[in-house]
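quick one before i forget lol
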Amino acid sequence: MYSTLPGVEVNKKLHWTPGEPGYTPHIISTISEWSLALSFISFFLTYIRDFKKINLRAQAQIQSNHLYESHHHRPVPTRGPTETSPLLAGSI
């Protein structure tokens, strides 16, 4: 459509009126897009019975008492500020 409508900024065009050049291809494109979306949703909904048979469970495992405990933490040189948290010191 970009090449068939010289002078019309198709990517910025929001409102089309009947009789305008490109109106018919725009309507066909819009109907096709909505048809594809509804077809995909209908196809996805056919799996509802299968998805009901699936149970997901997650278990959290805490590996430290707080966020600043890390196995990768290296001490920061004492020159300048003495901040030692990996988040602010930038040592990971």
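fyi The helical segments are 23-45, 48-51, 86-89.
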